[in-house]
Amino acid sequence: MKSLPMNLDRITLVSRNYRKEIVEDDVLNALLYGLGLALMDYTFDHGVYASTIVSVGKYLLEYLKRKGVEIRKGKPFECVVNLWKFFVSNGFVKQVTIVRQNDELKFEIHGIFGAKAFHDLVRQRGSEYIRPCPVFATILAQLGALGYFFKCKPLRYDAKNDVWHVAGKIQAMK
What we know:
The chain is α+β, with helices and mostly antiparallel strands. The chain is 45% helix and 24% strand. It is built from 6 helices and 6 strands. Strands 1, 2, 3, 4, 5 and 6 form a 6-stranded antiparallel beta sheet that branches. Helix 4 packs antiparallel against helix 6. The longest helix has 21 residues. It is globular.
């Protein structure tokens, strides 16, 4: 995927290799659903839950690196865009539009791997529990390594069109 300048306020990434069979696979969605529920059951405190998701993202990135896949790092916004590029180019996300307004980021995510599981988790436990998502786990891990975190606002999901609307801010850790 072509390198983009990171000073853009709106970036749309579209997969040329969308893997619908993986995105819609019931067993893989069940795995993410089970992971999400287990994390909720054993991490009662929101801070512990978030740090556990950061660990999942860190280990996911370490595994990919051992397999010869390294995702380019940079400043916080660059990390976020590069991670989305990776997941889109590998077909795990059909399309994502990233909008940067002042210090807020908005994502419009079409056809993401795990959407069924995430939708069920949100319906069952609330919007805070979307983060078993591999994309957001890796975003949180890379931002954490830079001394930042992503503070997510409540999520919206359009089930009919399979579109997630996510907004939040990249903030420095105190």
